[in-house]
Write a structure and sequence with these properties.
Helix content of chain B: 55-70%
Distance between the termini of chain B: 51 Å
Shape of chain A: elongated
Order of helices and strands of chain A: HHHHHHHEHHEEHHHE
Largest sheet of chain A: 2 strands, antiparallel
Largest interface: A-B, 87 and 87 residues
Helix content of chain A: 40-55%
Radius of gyration of chain B: 20 Å
Largest sheet of chain B: none
Structural class of chain A: mainly alpha
Number of strands of chain B: 0
Strand content of chain B: under 5%
Oligomer: heterodimer
Strand order of the largest sheet of chain A: 1-4
């Protein structure tokens, strides 16, 4: 039988309050509490403080209910359901497995054909989109427009998402494992177009979305400060964002301040403009690889 | 992990994946039911990232659209509430980075709005004491490292430690340690 011949820690008390202890541990804690006034008082104090803190959070963060919220979702779901049934909705297990195997084989060949590697170099390659699927595309927008206003962002339609997901063969991967990321960030005029979107994994090691975000932060600043030509910035992002990071941050590895799990600071996600689609033209890049 | 391991490309197939779409109408109903049940808490948590009401609402809507797609693909229904918080957390981070990255988190939750939490039925002395207590506790929360604050808020939303750990991509032990550390700080100030 587990016994506690000492005072309880705050962690034990809190875990007991939260129902996060095993039965044997909870029994030992309960037995101790029944005999220890100090710990019983501490438990009451923690419970009171925790309740007050939670109540403050609930009261303060309670945003006003948006009347149209549910109706908006209902309409969006109806639109989503009305989209033509695309490949990602109609896959059979066999098709999924075939796609997975095909991509794995392709990846294997790709990696085997590469020169001798180190982990950074391998990671560099798997952190890039496939150029034939995602060459990068921009709205035709002037530097003045780009730096003077919010970036153009259009809705990523279900059809667009399905096209990208299908092209990369990641239909079977849970949506919370990756995000459709803009290859050329909208802040550099990157278009909401299947040619400019790719499924970037949250958990990619080293050259992950966290690092890419830093580049996406730097380049628009350089462009709008007239220190870098817009077309060059777009092309560098489209052709190899990892090489672009190395070029503009003058380093071969991610800077210490830019490292960290991608799930902390993952990739770009922008909400769509509310207004009508801008009358602009798409410009596709030919990757310089 | 080998550099040729297909799993590094995200190709591992979930055991629950069946590949057949479900009835769209019933999925829509289920998503709307979950929206009614979970949207308020999710909205609170997303708003705590310092996002505007409009952007918060966009994130919440996107979470439920992704949930619809998730269910349509016949994927796991286990712990959908935890799944929603995880997706909402990731989307909120991205929004904050791209849209509101210059806006400090404190901008939407600071000492100036303490009066929203004071019990209006309390007498003036009690209200004053409540006000002071709330200010003291909130000052501690504002000073917490963001990860500790997120743990605290997710706990306040009723998530189990394992779900908090999944949402924040940290270990179960790290969650327990973070919450205990935070509670020690809060209690010390509260008792003072």
């Amino acid at each position: 039988m587990l016994s506690l011949n000492r005072h309880l820690t705050d962690r034990e008390i809190l875990q007991a309050l939260d129902g996060e202890l095993s039965e044997s541990r909870l029994s030992a804690v309960d037995r101790h509490l029944s005999e220890c006034e100090t710990c019983t008082a501490r438990q009451a104090a923690i419970a009171s403080t925790a309740a007050a803190s939670s109540a403050d959070y609930h009261a303060t963060m309670a945003s006003e209910p948006i009347e149209t919220s549910r109706a908006s979702l209902e309409a969006a779901l109806a639109r989503e359901a009305a989209e033509p049934r695309s490949a990602w909705l109609t896959l059979t297990p066999a098709v999924v497995m075939a796609a997975a195997i095909a991509l794995a084989v392709t990846a294997s060949i790709y990696l085997q054909s590469a020169p001798a590697t180190n982990s950074l170099a391998v990671n560099h390659r798997v952190s890039l989109p496939v150029s034939s699927i995602t060459p990068g595309a921009t709205w035709e927008v002037s530097l003045e427009e780009l730096c003077a206003s919010s970036p153009h962002v259009r809705p990523i339609t279900a059809a667009m998402r399905a096209e990208v997901v299908h092209a990369y063969g990641v239909e079977a991967v849970s949506a919370d494992q990756y995000e459709l990321d803009y290859l050329i960030t909208p802040e550099l005029g990157g278009a909401t177009d299947a040619r400019n979107l790719w499924p970037q994994k949250y958990a990619s090691p080293i050259w992950n979305a966290r690092v890419k975000d830093e580049l996406e932060r730097l380049l628009p600043q350089l462009v709008c400060d007239h220190q870098l030509d817009l077309a060059t910035a777009q092309r560098d992002m489209a052709s190899d964002w990892v090489a672009a990071y190395k070029k503009y941050f003058h380093t071969d590895v991610p800077l210490e301040a830019h490292r960290g799990p991608a799930t902390d600071d993952d990739d770009v996600y922008l909400m769509a403009d509310a207004g009508p689609a801008p009358a602009i033209r798409l410009v596709s890049f030919t990757p310089a690889r | 992990m080998s550099s040729k391991d297909p799993s590094m490309f995200g190709l591992s197939l979930p055991a629950t994946f069946v590949g057949y779409s479900e009835s769209s109408a019933s999925t829509q109903s289920e998503v709307l039911r979950l929206f009614d049940e979970c949207a308020p808490g999710l909205r609170r948590y997303v708003a705590a990232f310092g996002l505007t009401i409009e952007v918060t609402e966009d994130v919440v809507q996107e979470v439920f659209l992704q949930l619809f797609r998730h269910l349509q693909l016949g994927r796991s229904r286990e712990n959908l509430r935890g799944w929603m918080f995880r997706v909402g957390h990731n989307l909120a981070l991205k929004q904050r980075l791209k849209v509101a990255r210059r806006q400090r988190w404190e901008g939407t939750w600071d000492l100036s709005i303490v009066d929203r939490v004071i019990d209006p039925a309390a007498n003036p002395e009690e209200q004053l004491a409540d006000d002071r207590r709330t200010r003291r506790l909130r000052a501690v929360v504002l000073a917490l490292p963001e990860r500790d604050r997120q743990c605290l808020f997710l706990r306040a939303e009723g998530l189990r430690y394992r779900d908090i750990a999944k949402t924040l991509d940290v270990s179960l032990g790290a969650v327990a340690k973070s919450l205990a550390r935070t509670m020690t700080r809060l209690t010390t100030v509260d008792e003072g």
